[in-house]
Design brief:
The chain contains 7 helices and 16 strands. It is α+β, with helices and mostly antiparallel strands.
Length: 352
């Protein structure tokens, strides 16, 4: 009966689907702000999730003894009084009958009255909480963490807001025939046929709550999923390995792209040099023939092996040569390799 009343409350109040009805009166005190609940996905036939309460709070699963000082604000939400007529042939009617055990002989409907009175909303200040948990990490040795990690369908959630009653409240049901004037008796002890039942529960009872999911990384860091788009859970080792490989792939791809760009620019520069050389008359380019210039030599005659030209040997093709110049030096070497034509003349023209 309590579960049916809280479901009806959530359905009427709404809140964009974030509000969850408290399933049991005996567990109502476990859905307080910053308490932990476990969200489990049912089989594919039931799209809705099931929430299970735990005796722990967010502080209990964090490393360190420092308390979480996030503020909790509260305000009056509404005054809730509900009277409804439920058919016995519907799912909700069957659930109420099985839950309450009322005598429905000769009846086709159940009248349900829920009197919650003024209810208040208590919610955690999200911005303050995010600052509090920035440097905190999860304790993987905690029993709740170990058990949750072993179940892939389980997601840890933090209760961020709860809706509570402010006075003693009552719920009552009465079996009858649709169309009759339904009578409500909250505490009628003279009811031998069992066609009416009522319960009274104390003030400050939680009737609904909402949660934020937790996404926990392998290193113990965690995120609070403040939007419905982000999903909670545990980072798996295979997921972390795939993410690392993906990042390495992107790094290598970017590095190769930069190398190819550099090679392309170098090739364009060499092409410009060669075209500039060949477009000019020989008298202007053949500097080696002028008096006082450096002399091209065959490096093999000086026991120096063939190697890449310092000008055109660094492009896409490793162009090699046996010629060079002993009057020039680069990177500590007492000679440079240069093709006889046109690299030798271009090199010395640029050096001038």
């Amino acid at each position: 009966m309590f579960a049916a009343a809280t479901k009806s409350f959530v359905k009427q109040v709404g809140d964009g689907g974030r509000l969850v009805p408290v399933p049991s009166l005996s567990e109502a005190d476990k859905y307080q702000p910053l308490s932990l609940v476990v969200k489990k996905k049912r089989c594919f036939l039931f799209p809705r999730y099931k929430f299970a309460s735990t005796p722990f709070t967010l502080k209990d699963i964090l490393i360190g003894d420092r308390e979480i000082s996030a503020g909790i604000s509260s305000y009056q939400l509404l005054n809730y009084e509900d009277e409804s007529d439920v058919s016995l042939y519907g799912r909700r009617g069957n659930h109420i009958v099985n839950d309450v055990g009322i005598n429905v002989t000769g009846s086709d409907s159940i009248a349900v009255k829920a009197s919650f009175g003024v209810v208040t909303k208590h919610e955690v200040e999200v911005s303050t909480l995010l600052k509090e948990i920035t440097a905190r990490k999860i304790n993987f040795d905690h029993s709740l963490i170990r058990q949750s990690r072993s179940c892939r369908k389980a997601v840890l959630c933090v209760v961020m807001e709860s809706i509570r009653t402010t006075r003693q409240c009552s719920l009552s049901v009465h079996a009858g025939i649709r169309g009759e004037a339904m009578r409500f008796h909250f505490m009628d002890e003279q009811n031998p046929k069992g066609r009416e039942k009522a319960i009274v529960f104390p003030a400050h009872t939680t009737i609904a709550f909402s949660v934020f999911e937790l996404f926990i990384y392998l290193d113990g860091a965690f995120d609070l999923c403040v939007t419905s788009v982000s999903k909670g859970g545990f980072e798996r080792e295979e997921t972390a390995s795939f993410a690392l490989l993906y990042r390495l792939r992107n790094i290598l791809f970017e590095r190769n792209r930069r190398v190819m760009d550099a090679i392309s620019r170098s090739q364009l520069y060499l092409d410009d040099l060669f075209s500039d050389y060949y477009d000019k008359p020989l008298s202007m380019t053949d500097i080696s023939l002028k008096e006082g210039t450096h002399i091209r030599v065959n490096l093999l005659n000086h026991n120096i092996p063939k190697g890449p030209c310092i000008l055109c040997g660094m492009g896409n093709l490793k162009r090699e040569t046996v010629y060079g110049c002993f009057q020039c030096s680069v990177d500590g070497m007492k000679y440079v390799r240069l093709h006889a034509v046109p690299c030798f003349d271009i090199w010395h023209k640029r050096m001038k």
